[in-house]
């Protein structure tokens, strides 16, 4: 009636706590920050068709940059802003691909969709504070 308790079988694995940063989140944050800066620079130079488009893209890029810093601090509002930015960038790049038929936009849309799907995973959502 002796129980064989081996250390490997009974050692509980520590659950990852809230607020710990995953490497994928850091990579997504760098990409989104880069895209926000590139599009903001283009809006400041007037590269989009109308002044209203330039101002709206500048506002969206500002929200995306704020969301990136919130995501790096593992805040739920930062996660939500970056999640919205990822899905809208994927939809926008898909639309540009449909209009121009340039493969660059299809690749970028697929990459943005992969980032969106990574961010909606349960283990990523559970780490947000």
Describe this structure in words.
- It is a single chain.
- This protein is mainly alpha-helical and 129 residues long.
- The protein has one domain.
- Helices cover 74% and strands 0% of the residues.
- It has six helices and no strands.
- The termini are far apart.
Arithmetic mean of pLDDT: 88
**Helix-strand pattern:** HHHHHH
Report helical residue fraction: over 70%
Distance between the termini: 46 Å
Low-confidence stretches: none
Q: By helix and strand content, what is the structural category?
A: mainly alpha
Please tell me how large the radius of gyration is. 20 Å
Count every beta strand, where a strand is a DSSP E run of 2 or more residues: 0
Largest sheet: none
Shape descriptor reads: elongated
Number of helices: 6
Strand percent estimate: under 5%
How many domains comprise the coordinates?
1
């Amino acid at each position: 009636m002796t129980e064989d308790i081996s250390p490997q079988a009974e050692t509980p694995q520590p659950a990852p706590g809230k607020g710990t940063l995953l490497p994928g989140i850091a990579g997504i944050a760098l990409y989104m920050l880069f895209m926000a800066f590139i599009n903001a620079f283009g809006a400041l130079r007037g590269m989009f068709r109308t002044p209203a488009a330039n101002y709206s893209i500048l506002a969206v890029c500002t929200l995306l940059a704020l969301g990136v810093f919130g995501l790096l601090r593992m805040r739920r509002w930062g996660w939500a802003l970056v999640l919205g930015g990822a899905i809208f960038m994927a939809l926008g790049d898909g639309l540009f691909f449909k209009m121009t038929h340039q493969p660059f936009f299809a690749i970028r849309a697929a990459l943005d969709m992969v980032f969106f799907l990574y961010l909606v995973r349960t283990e990523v959502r559970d780490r947000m504070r």
